[in-house]
């Protein structure tokens, strides 16, 4: 099966539809699939539901899709750093489902593992628990969270091979591994495509069986908040 594509737009060809559910890896601006996000913007698909820890910043990452009003709903943990995200949410233009970070990561992992739901103490007694099933275990109350199964996963890795095996670098190993597994189709962008067999099997974070398409590209790697000492 040929998995390597020449560009992000080619890797998404025939995959994108209006109203689809996308799981996106990354944390802040670290490890985000910036090339695939830009290709989704250029494709013009609309009414998207996106599960991601946050939505980038105003002019980068998932913030690009908010600027063009292509997102109908965000499933996220964090709204900060993106003024347009906050504005759309507060004005009622964007639906938002808040999830604690650990819960969101586990929802993706559970969906990828074929687990329809799990119980957690996180969020008990808060608005997060409203409308969800409650159950007691050993005298403690837990709420039921559903696993996430997306139409499409988009992730960013450091290295990958022609079989789709992926290695993430440092902090980029945040939401990317669970996001990669929970999509019916997974498209990955990487900094470098290496020969099959050159990756140490013990260092592979996402096995190629989960990855359907892969593209290599150049990445901007912006710094979200730059802090330096005075001269």
Automatic annotation (TrEMBL):
From what superkingdom does this record's organism come?
Bacteria
Q: Where are the transmembrane segments?
A: 20-40
Question: What's one Pfam family the UniProt record gives for this protein?
Answer: CoA_trans
Is the keyword Nuclease in the record?
no
Q: Which SMART domains match?
A: CoA_trans
SUPFAM superfamilies, from UniProt? NagB/RpiA/CoA transferase-like
Keywords carried by this UniProt record: Membrane, Transferase, Transmembrane, Transmembrane helix
Indicate yes or no for the key word Transferase. Answer: yes
MF terms (GO), sorted A to Z? transferase activity
Tell me which PROSITE patterns the record gives. Answer: COA_TRANSF_1
Return the similarity comment.
Answer: Belongs to the 3-oxoacid CoA-transferase subunit A family.
Matches recorded under PANTHER family: ACETATE COA-TRANSFERASE SUBUNIT ALPHA, KETOACID-COENZYME A TRANSFERASE
Tell me what this protein is called: CoA transferase subunit A
The species this protein belongs to is: Halodurantibacterium flavum
The lineage is: Bacteria, Pseudomonadati, Pseudomonadota, Alphaproteobacteria, Rhodobacterales
């Amino acid at each position: 099966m040929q998995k390597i594509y020449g560009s992000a737009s080619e890797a998404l060809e025939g995959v994108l539809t209006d109203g689809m559910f996308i799981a996106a890896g990354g944390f802040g601006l670290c490890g985000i699939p910036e090339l695939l996000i830009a290709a989704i913007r250029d494709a013009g698909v609309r009414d998207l539901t996106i599960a991601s820890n946050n939505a980038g910043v105003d002019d980068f990452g998932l913030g690009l899709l908010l600027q063009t009003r292509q997102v109908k709903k965000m499933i996220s943990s964090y709204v900060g750093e993106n003024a347009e995200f906050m504005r759309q949410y507060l004005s009622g233009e964007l639906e938002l489902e808040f999830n604690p970070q650990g819960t969101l990561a586990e929802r993706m992992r559970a969906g990828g593992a074929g687990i329809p739901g799990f119980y957690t103490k996180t969020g008990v007694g808060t608005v997060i628990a409203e409308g969800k099933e409650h159950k007691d275990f050993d005298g403690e109350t837990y709420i039921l969270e559903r696993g996430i199964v997306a139409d499409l996963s988009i992730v960013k890795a450091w290295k990958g091979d022609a079989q789709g095996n992926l290695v993430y670098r440092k902090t980029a190993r945040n939401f990317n591994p669970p996001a990669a597994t929970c999509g019916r189709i997974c498209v990955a962008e990487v900094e470098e495509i290496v020969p099959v067999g050159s990756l140490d099997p013990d260092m592979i974070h996402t096995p190629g069986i989960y990855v359907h398409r892969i593209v290599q590209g150049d990445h901007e790697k912006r710094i979200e908040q730059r802090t330096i000492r005075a001269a």
